[in-house]
Amino acid sequence: xxxxxxxxxxxxxxxxxxxSMAILAPLIAPYGVGEIVGDVWETPxxxxxxxxxxxxxxxxTRMIYGGQTTILVATLATAISFVTGACLGLFAxxxxxxxxxxxxxxxxxxxxxxxxxxALVVLxxxxxxxxxxxxxxxxxxxxxxxxxSRAVAVDIRVMDFVEAAVLRGEGRGWIIFREILPxxxxxxxxxxxxxxxxxxxxxxxxxxxxxxxxxxxxxxGGIVKENKDGIVYGIGAALWPAAAIAVLAIxxxxxxxxxLGRTTSLRGGRG
Length: 271
Hints:
- It is a single chain.
- This protein has helices at residues 6-23, 25-28, 59-95, 97-111, 115-124, 130-157, 160-167, 172-208, 220-227, 239-270.
- With 271 residues, it is mostly helical.
- α6 packs across α8 and α8 runs parallel beside α9 (220-227).
- 36% of the residues are buried.
């Protein structure tokens, strides 16, 4: 059995730590998420390990709850993205013909517009609630999952075991979910980590621009926005959520790279 490389171990540990903090936020946060407990931008102390924010709320508490919101939104949006994109991609690869052409050209059209610009336009005319935000993010990112799943499925579709299933008279549902999907899972799982990172960065960017998670709820992008003016005065309150975003992105990326590399090596060994 191959040993897990140190970078992957670091990624696994840090990712587990972030998710654990998000799940246990109400139990480990020292104060209420909107509770004002001190003066504006206090320096770190025993009572406030990361100091306070722009209106005197405990920054550690805001970071913990902000991580909960950011990870929740990113996780749900990633799930929507993969369920929608993978199902449509596999369906288009198996059906082919005009269905494949219509879906693929529609995806190309959506992808021709920058994702951030598209999201800003949509969210500017819709109520910015968490369900709407998650749905918009998930559907926009589903186009990229569609491209990957379709490309993988097209390669698998022409293999002998799939042709044998077709000759046996198996239905399209069987072919998609019993023949193609199990063999397409490895690249899709690796890609899921990268899409999750994109979702974290995406929701943080939208919140920084004012069209993401809305106050008084906390998320990392919103905390950066709230405390960015303090950087001018040498106050680093905005750097903590920025660092959390970077560490989470690097950690998940290390895990995704390890999964992809392990999958590639297993395929090479079998070949």
